[in-house]
Structure formats: structure tokens, C-alpha cells
Amino acid sequence: MRIAKFATFILCILFVDIACCEDTIAVSKIGDEKFRIVLEKSKHNEKNEFDEFYLRLMESIEQRHFDHISALILYPIYVEVDGVKMKISDEAEFRRKSDKIFTGEFVSKLVSRKEKLSYLSRGVVVGRGELWLNVNKQDGTYQWRIIAINN
Length: 151
Prior knowledge:
The protein has helices at residues 2-21, 33-39, 49-62, 66-70, 91-101, 104-112; strands at residues 77-81, 84-88, 117-120, 123-126, 131-138, 141-149. A 4-stranded antiparallel sheet has the order 3-4-5-6. Strands 1-2 form a two-stranded antiparallel sheet. The protein is α+β, with helices and mostly antiparallel strands. Residues 4-29 have low confidence and may be disordered. The longest helix has 20 residues, at 2-21.
């Protein structure tokens, strides 16, 4: 009897957890099943914009195309350069410091963890928080952007 009540309790918790996520959840082919379910109903991802954005971003990181990466960042952004946290105000400044931000070690870490994605209230987390991504309204349209770089 106790086991049946406990099982019912667990099922109720799971149902409430899934029901609470319904409004914050867009279909993604990237990430695990839980990530895809959460992203599925995102109001800013009806056309799989996240997949396109993320695949292009990771390709740019792997190939070290900093001009492309710099256009995907929401500025200002705070990063670590030579062991010091600093504010990067625009694309030009990011491009000048990109080799010190996206070091070989940092790029390797991102590439090895690119399939590890989580969807939280503040956005999509890549790896263990190395990158944070979210939708930003700019010029009347919503676009995915890098909102944090934790190098």
C-alpha cells in the first residue's frame, strides 16, 4: 500500500514538473530528449531557429571564425582575458581579444561538451556553463545570442 502511494506521489510530481514547463518550452535535434522537450514549446523557436543558430555557432567556434562569433554576441559581455575579468563593449573589441578569450583549451572544452545542453529560465547552458545563449529582441525581431562566456 505504501509503495503504491509513493509511486502515485512520484507520478504527480513528474506531471506537475512537465506541466509547469509547458509555457517555456521549440523542437531541437540537438541535445538530449529532456532538452528537446523543454525547447520544443519555446515561443521564439517555432522554425527551429535554435538548431540553425547553434550549429553555425559551434562550427564557427571549431573553425575559429571570430568575425562570425562576434556578430552573435549580446554586448556588452564580460569575459576573462589574461586572468582578468573585463567588459567587452562591441564586436571590434571582441575581435581584437578573441584569441585570448577563445583559447585553444577553451575551444577544445566547448567542442567536447557541445552536446551537453540545458534549458534554464535564463537561457540555454552549453557544457558546464561555458556559454549561455538566449533570445534577444533587436529591431523588432527575436534572435538567438551569446549572453555569457565563462572562459
